[in-house]
Specification:
InterPro entries: Multihaem_cyt_sf (IPR036280), Multiheme_Cytochr_ET (IPR051829). This is Cytochrome C. Pfam families: Multi-haem_cyto. One of its GO terms (molecular function) is oxidoreductase activity. Keywords: Signal. This protein is mainly alpha-helical and 412 residues long. It folds into 3 domains: 87 residues, no CATH class; 45 residues, no CATH class; 174 residues, Hydroxylamine Oxidoreductase, Chain A, domain 2 (Up-down Bundle). 57% of the residues lie in helices and 0% in strands. It has 23 helices and no strands. The longest helix is centred in the last third of the chain and has 34 residues. It is globular. The N terminus is likely disordered. The protein binds heme C (8 copies).
């Protein structure tokens, strides 16, 4: 066993030596870390940065031994910004940078056990973002954060890795944002992946990948017109506006009379909704230009318009369901902690009532899939995981409301 390990180490050292000028003059950090964390040293030597940087370039020199580990600096966005100001500036003007702020803005977040927020395995597993030096000084900020190293994983920090759609997969998948599943089984995704299988170079692949549409020309600012919640505040379509107002009351962004609440400020800070027509339009036009690299403008406008109309249909059903639950609260059949007849949907699943759980599924699961599927050209998600389930759930909510009223009357 010992011999095998030793020869493995020799091969490993040989591997590092070849073509690596740093190794010719090993840094004290690497000397010791080759024993402590050999994987990290090896990964770092895959990075282009190992040609000019050392461990200390990002972690400082203050920590020098096992006894002063707490002196090692963990990088913030500014660490990378020093040498990559363009990418950092773009990144900080986009949505990823606001991931932690948007998370903290949700009332549900404060109801979750700490391990689910700070660790890398609950909400914090995807939302530990926006780690500037200042943010990291706040006591409730996670010690280990993600930002640049999300897509350029440490310590290889590779551009090629970040260009593949799998770089987005760990976060943009699953229950409420299955963009990975939707894209990878759409025509776009299938064509992209087939070209890759056939060994075509990245710019020779016909289908668009996540980065083609969301990081055009390598722009690190990610932001869409509708966003996660599918909300914009100004609305010219009168009917749609009336449903939107109901939804906003259930997000408690508006009070029952339709006046803005304090929560609007929080929504603004996290850019959770587009607040002006121009803001929405600018993002949409950027996307249209991207589609037009491969499709004609009439085709693109038609496709995106249909997707908007699918969201409109989803909102029609969703608003109906919300008003049914609100009427039960008004009648006192559902006991509310405050006098607000609208449920608080931004508490997500934190409600003891089955009917409100159904409403939560309509919001986070089925409505999301309807419109996200539409924008990612996936007819199965839009129809069977989305719209069909909204219809089914609305029937269940109606039936349950009737039962609850019945039971309430029997008690009297
Ligand atoms: C004599 C050995 C030694 C030297 C020299 C050394 N380290 Fe370390 N380092 C350690 C040990 C031991 C740990 C803790 C490992 C553990 O807990 O598993 C550590 C941990 C770290 C951590 C993680 C800190 C954290 O809070 O998670 C970083 C980053 C780090 N070292 C960077 C460096 C850099 C940069 C240098 C050179 C300036 C350096 N190390 C030099 C032994 C060393
Ligand atoms: C280009 C900047 C950069 C360089 C150079 C760099 N690191 Fe890191 N390192 C990072 C980032 C980013 C993280 C992740 C920080 C976080 O999770 O908050 C990290 C985390 C770490 C950790 C703690 C996390 C873990 O997985 O254990 C250790 C240990 C570490 N680095 C050691 C090293 C060593 C040893 C070297 C040199 C071989 C090195 N680093 C070079 C940026 C760098
Ligand atoms: C001291 C300056 C410096 C710092 C700090 C720094 N970089 Fe770099 N980075 C470089 C240099 C130099 C290159 C190589 C440029 C080249 O050869 O094209 C590079 C290249 C890169 C590349 C492209 C790699 C490739 O495969 O083409 C990425 C990605 C990258 N850095 C990410 C980061 C991240 C993330 C951080 C912070 C954790 C960081 N850098 C911190 C100097 C730095
Ligand atoms: C698997 C990774 C992952 C986990 C776990 C996760 N999220 Fe998210 N979250 C995302 C992604 C990705 C988005 C953006 C999705 C989109 O726009 O479609 C997002 C969006 C959000 C938004 C909307 C932000 C906005 O500005 O529009 C909020 C709020 C949010 N998440 C809260 C939470 C809470 C609370 C939890 C834990 C109960 C959680 N998330 C768990 C990945 C995750
Ligand atoms: C959401 C994924 C993602 C995140 C997060 C991300 N990058 Fe990138 N990065 C990419 C992609 C994709 C490319 C390739 C862009 C292109 O096609 O030119 C890239 C390219 C780069 C390059 C190489 C530029 C060049 O053309 O040589 C650098 C340097 C870089 N990123 C630094 C950063 C820094 C610094 C951060 C954090 C502020 C960061 N990245 C965060 C995805 C990301
Ligand atoms: C570490 C997890 C993670 C990775 C990896 C990741 N994202 Fe995200 N992404 C998020 C979270 C969390 C949000 C929501 C941020 C917020 O609330 O401000 C988000 C938001 C977005 C948005 C904005 C949606 C809106 O509200 O307008 C886009 C677009 C996006 N991501 C695209 C990508 C792409 C493309 C990649 C891969 C190149 C990627 N993301 C990689 C976690 C991630
Ligand atoms: C063909 C272009 C295209 C590709 C490829 C693409 N998207 Fe999108 N994406 C869109 C459009 C269009 C929207 C909606 C934009 C709007 O609101 O106007 C969108 C919206 C989003 C959003 C916001 C919420 C939503 O789903 O509506 C996120 C997050 C996102 N995309 C992530 C991804 C990820 C991750 C991938 C790869 C797995 C990906 N996208 C692939 C075009 C694309
Ligand atoms: C990099 C080139 C490229 C970009 C950018 C692109 N597409 Fe496509 N798209 C294709 C290719 C190639 C096909 C497959 C052609 C076919 O189905 O015959 C396709 C097919 C489609 C289809 C038909 C899907 C099906 O199931 O048959 C729709 C709808 C579509 N694209 C809409 C869009 C929209 C909307 C955008 C922008 C958000 C966009 N595309 C961006 C290359 C692209």
């Amino acid at each position: 066993m010992g011999r095998v390990k030793l020869s493995g180490l020799l091969v490993f050292i040989f591997f590092l030596t070849s073509g690596s000028p740093i190794w010719a003059k090993p840094s004290s950090c690497e000397d010791c870390h080759l024993k402590v964390t050999p994987g990290i040293v090896k990964d770092f030597h895959r990075s282009k940065m190992s040609e000019t940087l050392t461990c200390a370039s990002c972690h400082g020199r203050e920590h020098q031994s096992a006894n002063d580990v707490d002196k090692a600096k963990l990088p913030s966005i500014e660490t990378c910004q020093r040498c990559h100001p363009k990418q950092a500036k773009q990144y900080m003007s986009g949505k990823h940078f606001l991931g932690w702020i948007a998370l903290k803005a949700m009332p549900t977040t404060h109801l979750q056990p700490e391990a689910f927020i700070k660790g890398r395995k609950g909400c914090g597993g995807c939302h530990s973002l926006g780690a500037t030096a200042e943010a990291k000084r706040q006591p409730d900020y996670p010690k280990y954060a993600m930002d640049c190293q999300n897509c350029h994983t440490r310590h290889a920090f590779s551009k090629a890795e970040a260009q593949e759609p799998e770089a987005c997969m760990t976060c943009h998948m699953g229950f409420d944002h299955p963009q990975w599943e939707m894209w990878s089984s759409s025509k776009h995704g299938v064509i992209y992946r087939l070209d890759r299988l056939m060994g075509r170079a990245i710019d020779e692949r016909r289908g668009p990948r996540c980065q083609t549409c969301h990081m055009p020309d390598g722009d690190h600012r990610v932001m869409t017109a509708w966003g996660f919640l599918g909300l914009r505040l100004p609305e010219k379509d009168k009917e749609w506006l009336s449903w939107r107002l109901t939804i906003l009351k259930a997000f408690r962004v508006l009070d029952p009379q339709g006046k803005p609440t304090d929560r609007l400020e929080v929504i603004k800070a996290g850019k959770v909704a587009r607040l002006t027509e121009e803001e929405w339009q600018a993002e949409r036009e950027k996307m249209v230009r991207t589609c037009q690299r491969c499709h004609n403008s009439a085709f693109v406008k038609e496709q995106l318009h249909q997707a908007d109309m699918m969201l409109r249909e989803a909102d029609r059903l969703f608003a109906q369901a919300i008003e049914i639950v609100a009427s039960l609260r008004k009648e006192g059949i559902i006991k509310s902690e405050d006098n607000n007849p609208y449920p608080d949907l931004l508490r997500f699943y934190e409600t003891p009532y089955k009917i409100e759980q159904l409403l939560y599924m309509m919001f986070m699961d089925y409505r999301m899939k309807t419109f996200q599927g539409a924008f990612h050209m996936n007819p199965d998600y839009t129809t069977w995981y989305g719209y069909a389930k909204m219809k089914k759930t609305l029937v269940e909510i109606k039936e349950l409301a009737q039962k609850m009223r019945h039971q309430a009357q029997e008690k009297i």
